[in-house]
Amino acid sequence: MKVNLEPKKNLIFNTFLVAFILHTAQIGVGIAGLPRIVFMEAGQDAWISIIASGVVVSIVLFFISKLLACYSSADLYGIQYDIFGRWISKLFNLVYILYFLIVTYVIMMNYTEMVQAWIFPKMPTWLLVTFLVFLASYAVLGGIRVVVGVTFLGLIITFWLVLVIYTPIKHLDLNHLQPVFVSSWKEHLMAIYKVSFSVIGFELLLIVYPYVKEKKKALRYALFGTWYSTFLLTLVTAVSIGFFSQESILKTIWPVLSMFKIVRIPNLERFEFIAVSFWMMVILPNICIYFWAATRGVKRVFNFSQKKTIYCFAIALVAGSFLIDDRLTMNTVTDKVGTFSFMLSFIYPCFLFVVVKIKQSFTKMKGAKG
Amino acid sequence: MIPSALLVSLGQSRSNVPFPPVFEALLLEFVIELLREAGARLPTKVGQTMGIVGGIVIGQAAVDAGFTSNILIIIIAISALGSFTAPSYAIGTAVRMIRFPVIMMAGLYGGVGIMFCLCFILIHLLKVTTLGRPYLTPIYPFRFSDWKYSIFRLPYQFLVQRPVSNRPGDSTRIPAKKIKQKKDVDE
């Protein structure tokens, strides 16, 4: 396996699209339920914890970009191969591949749960998962360009959903947000930890990096994308804390969708039905890019045909949808994956950066002596 | 989902229709396709008359007979008109064909089905290439300088460079000496 990738010229995309990839990878099903989860930890100061989590993400992104700058155009799989050698790296890469696949699975299952709770209570889980898997594999079969296109157009088409939040803002009660700065450090740290599963997606910079045109500017656009999503998450959290009373926000599982309930258009009274179905467009880039990352990993690590991998993984995902059929199991699985994601996307890249730096200084010393 | 005031008129219109809405929509679509094909084969002068007679008479009779509701006829007619607004006739035909699976999915799975079809079409448009170039080209891959050729059509004298996305061998379209020079009033 080569450490550095030299993708064909027609596969390389513009640098500003990094912002779109990271933003759409971060915003997904998580944002719909996020306000409640953070509120449980940090109370009315939840929005501060989300801004803090944005700072944490920026720090991790900084380390990631420094790590990637050590190589000319390597991705995570290549770097691990360079550091850990042939066999151990295979194990580590396999962990990442499985992680990307499982995140795809969790996103799909959570969306299915949302649809079953709001629109079709009797729609079978496997059917909706099959729809989503079909879309994702169709996009990934087109390669990185199509996947990036889905993130770009997916964001532009769903942008108007942000403007809908104007209606809840009109009914905002600022007293719910006061007093400010009452939560302790510990609560904030706990809240940041809970947010972490909703803001993952930035680690995909490690995978798409070889395809970026101007690699030096990648960090700038990556930060742009993550701060836009941090802004959205903060806005949504602050508005839903102000909109709901303390008791009701703890009982509302999807506060964002419940806020959409009061939006009224002359020919449409229950806006959240539209919102829930439109959410498919929000999560489509999400599942596409994660699915791509997983299949790309198999191609890189085991040199197995990516097309066949896509078919195998698609079948695996549909088969996996039969495993979980109640909300409680889904919640525990999501929590477990959340813990995993915290380690794999926040802590591990920083650790890898230190290892790479040590190794490079070591080889430099050797070179200087020899 | 629908406000009660609107629901009353919808219900009134649909009250004596025996079919489910999907079947109704497919039936009307089929009739419109038939009219269009018949109109295309007939000589021009008769064709127009056929269209009007067919459209108005069949539409009115279908409502009277309790086959379809008035509202659905309005919707189908508007969407049929919409398919003609595509600047190229071939695209209009493609849209017409896509409509049937979308109607079926909407009938089976509601909003989720419609969104599934929209996502599918979006991905498909991203994958399609014409003459080796991406189909959605000035939008994705994003080339703002090419927007003057497609989305806004600028006056001829501004179109000095050829579109970047076509990767032309010679990128200038109007040679430098042919560009209009700025002149003062009486020179």
In short:
Chain A has 16 helices and no strands. With 370 residues, chain A is an all-alpha fold. The mean pLDDT of chain A is 90.
Give a structural overview:
The complex is a heterodimer of chains A (370) and B (187). Chain A is mainly α and 370 residues long. Chain A contains 16 helices and no strands. Chain A is globular. The two termini of chain A are 27 Å apart. In chain A, 47% of the residues are buried. Chain B has six helices and two strands. A two-stranded antiparallel sheet of chain B has the order 1-2.
Q: What tags apply to this protein structure?
A:
heterodimer, A: about 375 residues, mainly alpha, about 0% strand, globular, B: about 190 residues
The oligomerization state is heterodimer
User: Rg of chain B from C-alpha positions?
Assistant: 24 Å
Q: Tell me the major beta sheet of chain B.
A: 2 strands, antiparallel
How much helical structure, as a percent, in the residues of chain B? 55-70%
Total domain modules of chain A: 1
In which order are the strands of the major sheet of chain B placed?
A: 1-2
CATH class of chain A: Mainly Alpha
Tell me the layout of helices and strands.
The complex is a heterodimer of chains A (370) and B (187).
Chain A lengths: L16 H10 L3 H13 L3 H24 L6 H43 L6 H17 L2 H15 L1 H4 L2 H5 L14 H15 L5 H4 L9 H26 L2 H6 L3 H6 L10 H32 L3 H15 L6 H43 L1
Chain B lengths: L3 H11 L6 H21 L2 H21 L5 H15 L4 H39 L1 E2 L2 E2 L12 H4 L37
Antiparallel strand pairs in B: 1-2
Helix pairs in contact in B: 2-3, 2-4, 2-5
